[in-house]
Design goal:
The protein is α+β, with helices and mostly antiparallel strands. The protein contains seven helices and 17 strands. It binds zinc ion. The site of zinc ion has 8 residues, from β1 and α4.
Amino acid sequence: MRRFIAGLAGLGMLVANAPALVIDIDYTYDGGYFSLNPAAKAALIQAAADVGNAITSTLTAVPGDIYNGEFGVDPMDPTRVKIDWGFDFPNPSNTAVNVTVPAFSLAANHFRLYVGAEALPAGSPELGEGSGVGFSEDVSITNATEGEFPTAMNNAVAASNAGMRRGVGPQMNLINTSSTLGGTTVNYTLQTGAIAGVVTMNSNANWHFDINTNPAPLESDFYSVALHEILHTLGVGTSFTWDSQANGTNWSGQNAMTLNGTGTNLISTDGGHIAEGTMSTSIVTGLPQEVAMDPTLTQGTRKTITQLDLAFLRDLGYTTIAVPEPATVVLLGVAALGLVMIRRRA
Ligand SMILES: [Zn+2]
Protein backbone atom coordinates (compact mmCIF):
# COMPACT_ATOMS: atom_id res chain seq x y z
CA MET A 1 0.00 0.00 0.00
CA ARG A 2 1.19 3.41 -0.66
CA ARG A 3 -0.01 6.69 0.37
CA PHE A 4 0.27 9.91 -1.24
CA ILE A 5 0.72 13.37 -0.84
CA ALA A 6 0.58 16.94 -2.22
CA GLY A 7 1.87 19.77 -7.67
CA LEU A 8 1.43 22.44 -10.45
CA ALA A 9 -1.77 23.65 -11.60
CA GLY A 10 -2.96 22.66 -14.94
CA LEU A 11 -6.33 21.71 -16.13
CA GLY A 12 -7.06 19.63 -19.07
CA MET A 13 -7.86 16.00 -18.89
CA LEU A 14 -7.21 13.26 -21.31
CA VAL A 15 -9.85 12.74 -23.88
CA ALA A 16 -10.30 9.54 -25.75
CA ASN A 17 -13.12 8.05 -27.74
CA ALA A 18 -13.40 5.02 -25.48
CA PRO A 19 -11.36 3.95 -22.50
CA ALA A 20 -9.14 1.00 -23.21
CA LEU A 21 -9.24 0.02 -19.56
CA VAL A 22 -12.55 0.50 -17.84
CA ILE A 23 -12.16 1.21 -14.15
CA ASP A 24 -15.41 0.29 -12.45
CA ILE A 25 -15.66 2.33 -9.28
CA ASP A 26 -17.31 0.48 -6.42
CA TYR A 27 -18.76 2.73 -3.70
CA THR A 28 -19.98 -0.12 -1.48
CA TYR A 29 -17.50 0.72 1.26
CA ASP A 30 -17.27 4.51 0.87
CA GLY A 31 -19.44 5.32 3.89
CA GLY A 32 -21.39 7.82 1.78
CA TYR A 33 -18.39 10.07 1.26
CA PHE A 34 -18.66 10.36 -2.49
CA SER A 35 -22.43 10.66 -2.70
CA LEU A 36 -22.18 13.53 -0.21
CA ASN A 37 -19.34 15.16 -2.14
CA PRO A 38 -20.29 15.29 -5.82
CA ALA A 39 -17.23 17.38 -6.71
CA ALA A 40 -14.98 14.77 -5.11
CA LYS A 41 -16.81 12.08 -7.01
CA ALA A 42 -16.40 13.96 -10.28
CA ALA A 43 -12.66 14.33 -9.68
CA LEU A 44 -12.34 10.63 -8.85
CA ILE A 45 -14.27 9.62 -11.97
CA GLN A 46 -12.11 11.90 -14.10
CA ALA A 47 -8.91 10.47 -12.64
CA ALA A 48 -10.12 6.91 -13.25
CA ALA A 49 -11.07 7.79 -16.83
CA ASP A 50 -7.72 9.44 -17.49
CA VAL A 51 -5.80 6.43 -16.24
CA GLY A 52 -8.05 4.07 -18.18
CA ASN A 53 -7.63 6.09 -21.36
CA ALA A 54 -3.86 5.93 -21.06
CA ILE A 55 -3.74 2.11 -20.93
CA THR A 56 -4.38 0.24 -24.15
CA SER A 57 -3.71 -3.33 -23.02
CA THR A 58 -6.24 -6.07 -23.51
CA LEU A 59 -6.63 -7.68 -20.12
CA THR A 60 -8.44 -10.97 -20.43
CA ALA A 61 -11.74 -11.59 -18.67
CA VAL A 62 -11.76 -13.05 -15.17
CA PRO A 63 -14.23 -15.96 -15.24
CA GLY A 64 -14.90 -16.16 -11.51
CA ASP A 65 -13.59 -17.40 -8.24
CA ILE A 66 -13.44 -21.16 -8.60
CA TYR A 67 -10.99 -23.04 -10.74
CA ASN A 68 -11.37 -26.77 -11.15
CA GLY A 69 -8.75 -29.19 -12.23
CA GLU A 70 -10.04 -32.65 -13.02
CA PHE A 71 -8.32 -35.82 -14.00
CA GLY A 72 -9.39 -39.41 -13.88
CA VAL A 73 -10.73 -42.35 -15.73
CA ASP A 74 -14.33 -41.89 -14.64
CA PRO A 75 -15.68 -38.82 -16.44
CA MET A 76 -18.68 -38.66 -14.09
CA ASP A 77 -16.61 -38.83 -10.96
CA PRO A 78 -13.08 -37.72 -11.61
CA THR A 79 -10.42 -36.68 -9.22
CA ARG A 80 -11.04 -33.05 -8.59
CA VAL A 81 -8.96 -30.23 -7.25
CA LYS A 82 -10.73 -26.96 -6.65
CA ILE A 83 -9.10 -23.59 -6.03
CA ASP A 84 -11.36 -21.01 -4.44
CA TRP A 85 -10.11 -17.46 -4.54
CA GLY A 86 -11.13 -14.62 -2.26
CA PHE A 87 -10.11 -10.97 -2.12
CA ASP A 88 -9.34 -9.05 1.03
CA PHE A 89 -8.51 -5.43 1.57
CA PRO A 90 -8.81 -2.73 4.21
CA ASN A 91 -12.26 -1.19 4.27
CA PRO A 92 -11.53 2.09 2.48
CA SER A 93 -13.61 4.11 4.94
CA ASN A 94 -12.32 2.25 8.01
CA THR A 95 -8.92 0.84 7.21
CA ALA A 96 -8.51 -0.82 10.60
CA VAL A 97 -11.04 -3.41 9.48
CA ASN A 98 -10.49 -5.83 6.66
CA VAL A 99 -13.15 -6.70 4.11
CA THR A 100 -13.20 -10.10 2.48
CA VAL A 101 -15.20 -10.74 -0.64
CA PRO A 102 -15.40 -13.77 -2.89
CA ALA A 103 -13.53 -13.31 -6.10
CA PHE A 104 -15.78 -12.14 -8.91
CA SER A 105 -15.97 -12.31 -12.64
CA LEU A 106 -14.85 -9.37 -14.72
CA ALA A 107 -15.29 -8.66 -18.40
CA ALA A 108 -12.18 -8.17 -20.49
CA ASN A 109 -10.53 -4.81 -19.88
CA HIS A 110 -12.47 -4.09 -16.71
CA PHE A 111 -10.88 -3.39 -13.34
CA ARG A 112 -12.73 -2.93 -10.07
CA LEU A 113 -11.82 -0.05 -7.78
CA TYR A 114 -13.08 0.05 -4.21
CA VAL A 115 -13.03 3.58 -2.85
CA GLY A 116 -13.66 5.42 0.37
CA ALA A 117 -12.42 8.13 2.66
CA GLU A 118 -11.28 8.08 6.23
CA ALA A 119 -10.44 10.86 8.66
CA LEU A 120 -6.77 10.67 9.48
CA PRO A 121 -5.47 12.59 12.47
CA ALA A 122 -5.37 16.34 12.02
CA GLY A 123 -2.08 17.36 10.53
CA SER A 124 -1.43 13.97 9.03
CA PRO A 125 0.72 14.41 5.98
CA GLU A 126 -0.91 11.49 4.28
CA LEU A 127 -3.46 12.37 1.64
CA GLY A 128 -4.45 8.98 0.40
CA GLU A 129 -3.45 5.41 -0.08
CA GLY A 130 -3.87 2.93 -2.83
CA SER A 131 -2.96 -0.65 -3.56
CA GLY A 132 -4.15 -3.76 -5.23
CA VAL A 133 -6.34 -6.05 -3.16
CA GLY A 134 -5.00 -9.00 -1.27
CA PHE A 135 -5.84 -12.52 -2.23
CA SER A 136 -6.51 -15.73 -0.44
CA GLU A 137 -6.86 -19.13 -1.96
CA ASP A 138 -8.29 -22.34 -0.67
CA VAL A 139 -7.54 -25.67 -2.25
CA SER A 140 -9.88 -28.61 -1.84
CA ILE A 141 -9.32 -32.10 -3.12
CA THR A 142 -12.15 -34.55 -3.64
CA ASN A 143 -12.45 -38.07 -4.90
CA ALA A 144 -8.73 -38.23 -5.26
CA THR A 145 -6.36 -41.00 -5.83
CA GLU A 146 -2.82 -40.12 -5.03
CA GLY A 147 -1.67 -41.08 -8.49
CA GLU A 148 -4.12 -38.77 -10.20
CA PHE A 149 -3.66 -35.90 -7.79
CA PRO A 150 -0.63 -34.19 -9.39
CA THR A 151 -2.29 -33.90 -12.78
CA ALA A 152 -5.55 -32.68 -11.30
CA MET A 153 -3.67 -30.16 -9.15
CA ASN A 154 -1.65 -28.87 -12.08
CA ASN A 155 -4.79 -28.60 -14.19
CA ALA A 156 -6.42 -26.49 -11.48
CA VAL A 157 -3.36 -24.26 -11.24
CA ALA A 158 -3.30 -23.79 -15.02
CA ALA A 159 -7.00 -22.87 -15.02
CA SER A 160 -6.49 -20.44 -12.15
CA ASN A 161 -3.53 -18.73 -13.73
CA ALA A 162 -5.35 -18.44 -17.04
CA GLY A 163 -8.27 -16.81 -15.27
CA MET A 164 -6.58 -14.67 -12.65
CA ARG A 165 -3.41 -13.53 -14.40
CA ARG A 166 -5.29 -11.64 -17.13
CA GLY A 167 -2.67 -12.35 -19.77
CA VAL A 168 -0.83 -9.04 -19.67
CA GLY A 169 -0.01 -6.31 -17.23
CA PRO A 170 1.78 -6.74 -13.92
CA GLN A 171 1.80 -9.75 -11.71
CA MET A 172 0.19 -8.31 -8.63
CA ASN A 173 0.83 -11.43 -6.59
CA LEU A 174 3.01 -14.41 -7.15
CA ILE A 175 2.35 -17.20 -4.68
CA ASN A 176 4.65 -20.19 -4.43
CA THR A 177 2.98 -22.90 -2.40
CA SER A 178 2.26 -26.59 -2.31
CA SER A 179 -0.46 -29.11 -1.59
CA THR A 180 -0.07 -32.65 -0.35
CA LEU A 181 -2.20 -35.73 -0.70
CA GLY A 182 -0.94 -38.76 1.13
CA GLY A 183 2.73 -38.94 0.37
CA THR A 184 2.54 -36.84 -2.75
CA THR A 185 3.34 -33.14 -2.66
CA VAL A 186 2.80 -30.86 -5.61
CA ASN A 187 4.61 -27.51 -5.68
CA TYR A 188 3.00 -24.84 -7.78
CA THR A 189 2.88 -21.13 -8.47
CA LEU A 190 -0.30 -19.10 -8.50
CA GLN A 191 -0.37 -15.75 -10.25
CA THR A 192 -2.75 -12.85 -10.18
CA GLY A 193 -2.91 -9.85 -12.46
CA ALA A 194 -4.56 -6.47 -12.15
CA ILE A 195 -8.08 -7.33 -11.07
CA ALA A 196 -9.09 -4.96 -8.29
CA GLY A 197 -7.71 -2.25 -6.07
CA VAL A 198 -8.65 -0.09 -3.13
CA VAL A 199 -8.20 3.64 -2.58
CA THR A 200 -8.69 5.56 0.65
CA MET A 201 -8.63 9.35 0.65
CA ASN A 202 -7.98 11.37 3.80
CA SER A 203 -11.29 13.08 4.56
CA ASN A 204 -9.44 15.46 6.92
CA ALA A 205 -7.25 17.04 4.26
CA ASN A 206 -7.76 20.58 3.00
CA TRP A 207 -8.98 19.46 -0.39
CA HIS A 208 -9.56 21.24 -3.62
CA PHE A 209 -12.19 19.13 -5.36
CA ASP A 210 -13.17 21.11 -8.45
CA ILE A 211 -11.45 19.72 -11.53
CA ASN A 212 -12.32 22.87 -13.47
CA THR A 213 -10.41 25.26 -11.25
CA ASN A 214 -6.94 25.35 -9.80
CA PRO A 215 -6.22 24.58 -6.15
CA ALA A 216 -5.47 27.52 -3.91
CA PRO A 217 -2.00 27.70 -2.34
CA LEU A 218 -2.86 25.73 0.80
CA GLU A 219 -5.18 23.24 -0.82
CA SER A 220 -4.35 19.70 -1.87
CA ASP A 221 -5.73 18.74 -5.25
CA PHE A 222 -8.10 15.81 -4.98
CA TYR A 223 -7.81 14.84 -8.64
CA SER A 224 -4.02 14.62 -8.42
CA VAL A 225 -4.10 12.36 -5.39
CA ALA A 226 -6.85 10.15 -6.82
CA LEU A 227 -4.79 9.78 -10.00
CA HIS A 228 -1.74 8.79 -7.98
CA GLU A 229 -3.58 6.27 -5.84
CA ILE A 230 -5.33 4.67 -8.81
CA LEU A 231 -1.96 4.15 -10.47
CA HIS A 232 -0.83 2.38 -7.30
CA THR A 233 -3.84 0.07 -7.52
CA LEU A 234 -2.69 -0.97 -11.00
CA GLY A 235 0.69 -2.11 -9.74
CA VAL A 236 2.90 0.99 -9.63
CA GLY A 237 4.95 0.44 -6.49
CA THR A 238 2.64 -2.34 -5.35
CA SER A 239 3.19 -5.41 -7.50
CA PHE A 240 5.52 -8.34 -7.84
CA THR A 241 6.47 -7.02 -11.27
CA TRP A 242 7.42 -3.67 -9.77
CA ASP A 243 9.48 -5.29 -7.06
CA SER A 244 11.25 -7.48 -9.61
CA GLN A 245 12.59 -4.36 -11.36
CA ALA A 246 13.31 -2.16 -8.35
CA ASN A 247 16.60 -2.79 -6.60
CA GLY A 248 16.91 -0.26 -3.82
CA THR A 249 16.62 3.08 -5.53
CA ASN A 250 17.60 1.70 -8.92
CA TRP A 251 15.21 0.65 -11.68
CA SER A 252 15.96 -1.95 -14.33
CA GLY A 253 12.84 -1.62 -16.50
CA GLN A 254 13.84 -0.70 -20.04
CA ASN A 255 11.09 1.78 -20.91
CA ALA A 256 11.63 4.08 -17.96
CA MET A 257 15.40 3.69 -18.14
CA THR A 258 15.43 4.66 -21.80
CA LEU A 259 13.18 7.66 -21.38
CA ASN A 260 14.94 8.90 -18.28
CA GLY A 261 18.43 8.14 -19.54
CA THR A 262 19.28 5.99 -16.54
CA GLY A 263 17.59 3.80 -13.98
CA THR A 264 20.06 4.76 -11.27
CA ASN A 265 18.34 6.48 -8.37
CA LEU A 266 15.10 6.60 -10.33
CA ILE A 267 13.17 5.02 -7.45
CA SER A 268 12.27 6.76 -4.19
CA THR A 269 13.87 5.67 -0.98
CA ASP A 270 10.56 4.13 0.11
CA GLY A 271 10.84 1.72 -2.81
CA GLY A 272 7.30 2.27 -3.97
CA HIS A 273 7.48 5.43 -6.05
CA ILE A 274 9.45 7.24 -8.71
CA ALA A 275 12.19 9.28 -7.03
CA GLU A 276 11.09 12.49 -5.34
CA GLY A 277 11.10 15.51 -7.62
CA THR A 278 11.60 13.56 -10.86
CA MET A 279 10.52 15.66 -13.82
CA SER A 280 8.94 14.55 -17.07
CA THR A 281 6.43 15.92 -19.60
CA SER A 282 2.71 15.95 -18.94
CA ILE A 283 0.81 14.07 -21.61
CA VAL A 284 -2.07 16.44 -20.98
CA THR A 285 -0.40 19.83 -21.07
CA GLY A 286 2.79 18.97 -22.92
CA LEU A 287 4.65 20.93 -20.28
CA PRO A 288 7.37 19.90 -17.86
CA GLN A 289 5.88 18.51 -14.68
CA GLU A 290 6.89 16.50 -11.68
CA VAL A 291 5.79 12.92 -12.28
CA ALA A 292 2.47 11.79 -10.87
CA MET A 293 4.12 8.85 -9.15
CA ASP A 294 6.76 10.46 -7.03
CA PRO A 295 5.90 10.46 -3.31
CA THR A 296 4.67 14.01 -2.86
CA LEU A 297 2.26 16.57 -4.16
CA THR A 298 2.88 20.24 -3.56
CA GLN A 299 -0.13 22.06 -2.20
CA GLY A 300 -1.72 24.46 -4.62
CA THR A 301 -0.69 22.43 -7.62
CA ARG A 302 -2.16 19.79 -9.89
CA LYS A 303 -0.47 16.83 -11.47
CA THR A 304 -1.46 14.92 -14.56
CA ILE A 305 0.03 11.76 -16.07
CA THR A 306 3.50 12.25 -17.53
CA GLN A 307 5.45 10.41 -20.18
CA LEU A 308 7.63 8.85 -17.52
CA ASP A 309 4.60 7.58 -15.59
CA LEU A 310 3.51 5.88 -18.82
CA ALA A 311 6.97 4.37 -19.29
CA PHE A 312 6.69 2.78 -15.85
CA LEU A 313 3.30 1.37 -16.80
CA ARG A 314 4.92 -0.19 -19.86
CA ASP A 315 7.64 -1.66 -17.68
CA LEU A 316 4.84 -3.26 -15.68
CA GLY A 317 3.58 -4.99 -18.82
CA TYR A 318 0.82 -2.65 -19.94
CA THR A 319 0.69 -1.06 -23.32
CA THR A 320 -0.06 2.65 -23.23
CA ILE A 321 -1.05 5.35 -25.60
CA ALA A 322 1.94 6.00 -27.78
CA VAL A 323 1.19 9.52 -28.80
CA PRO A 324 0.18 12.14 -26.29
CA GLU A 325 -3.41 13.09 -26.46
CA PRO A 326 -3.82 16.71 -27.40
CA ALA A 327 -4.16 19.01 -24.48
CA THR A 328 -7.64 20.31 -24.07
CA VAL A 329 -6.74 23.16 -21.81
CA VAL A 330 -3.47 24.44 -20.52
CA LEU A 331 -3.38 26.50 -17.39
CA LEU A 332 -0.19 27.00 -15.55
CA GLY A 333 -0.66 28.21 -12.03
CA VAL A 334 1.80 29.64 -9.64
CA ALA A 335 3.44 26.83 -7.77
CA ALA A 336 2.82 27.08 -4.10
CA LEU A 337 4.80 25.35 -1.47
CA GLY A 338 4.25 22.84 1.17
CA LEU A 339 5.41 19.39 0.63
CA VAL A 340 3.52 16.70 2.30
CA MET A 341 5.06 13.48 3.24
CA ILE A 342 4.09 10.00 2.66
CA ARG A 343 4.29 6.85 4.54
CA ARG A 344 4.20 3.40 3.28
CA ARG A 345 2.58 0.31 4.50
CA ALA A 346 3.87 -2.98 3.29
ZN1 LIG B 1 2.05 6.89 -3.35
